[in-house]
Write a structure and sequence with these properties.
The chain is α/β, with parallel strands linked by helices. About 55% of the residues lie in helices and about 15% in strands. The chain contains eleven helices and nine strands.
Length: about 260
């Protein structure tokens, strides 16, 4: 079964990350499937609004460190992996259909970044989100270096990025990074309810609203995405990063 699935409920398209055995962690297969499912939703003329979510216990636990050696095998592998990460953001933020995140469990690293790429977010009350990149010697992606200071201000954004502290759903709501916090069992119903309300409105108006607002972000956003791609690739080449990732894996296994 693909690592991401597309289905439609009336005018609402649903894209589901589908590697539950790895907490939907990001590897080449998942990102290719996510990209394809998003493009299927965007191309579907009956789909007015897209909901993204994750199967199993988490939305996305970030980069799959089990595949780290494959990701850094050579320059081509590094460039391919990092480009795939940024391609998701380009697709999500570059399309004219609104995207609602129905996010639960863990949204870590790239998963947190995809949350921030949504127009609206319905968070389950079990959501935990954080950026582990500075601990691991890696670098954030998803346009976060532009979007997060825009949303929070410089100091609060830097606090999240520098310290990598875990934030609960209620803390994310207080920061303005999610729109609703609901019990886990109600998350999808609430997200669908909001999506169906939006779907009744003018697709023409909504499409142009998203295009204009993201166009207002303009070159600064896409320059940030491009710069992050370059720096993230450099991070994957860094021996300090490899050592930090290895230590993190050993500690997590209790070795």
């Amino acid at each position: 079964m693909p690592d991401a699935l597309y289905a439609r409920n009336e005018a609402v398209g649903v894209v589901t990350l589908n590697r539950p055995e790895r907490l939907n962690a990001m590897n080449g297969g998942l990102m290719a499937a996510f990209d394809a499912a998003l493009r299927q939703a965007i191309a579907d003329p009956e789909c007015a609004v897209i909901v993204i979510t994750g199967a199993g216990r988490a939305f996305c636990a970030g980069d799959d460190l089990k595949d780290y050696d494959l990701q850094i095998a050579d320059d081509k592998a590094i460039e391919t992996h990092v480009a795939a990460i940024q391609r998701i953001t380009r697709v999500m933020m570059g399309c004219d259909k609104p995207i609602i995140g129905a996010i639960h469990g863990y949204a870590v690293g790239g998963g947190f970044e995809w949350l921030l790429n949504c127009e609206l977010v319905v968070a389950a009350d079990d959501l935990v989100a954080f950026f582990p990149e500075t601990e691991l010697g890696q670098f954030v992606t998803g346009g976060v270096t532009y979007l997060l200071p825009l949303a929070l201000g410089y100091q609060r954004a830097m606090e999240l990025l520098l310290l990598g502290e875990r934030k609960t759903a209620q803390e994310l709501l207080a920061l303005g990074l999610v729109n609703r916090v609901v019990p886990r069992a109600e998350m999808l119903d609430v997200a669908f309810g909001i999506a169906k309300r939006i779907a009744k409105r003018s697709r023409w108006s909504i499409g142009r609203l998203k295009t204009l607002l993201n166009g207002e972000l303009g070159s600064a956003l896409w320059q940030a995405v491009e710069a992050e791609q370059t720096i993230t690739a450099d991070a994957f080449r860094n021996t300090d990063t490899a050592e930090r990732v290895a230590r993190f894996g050993t500690a997590r296994r209790g070795g």
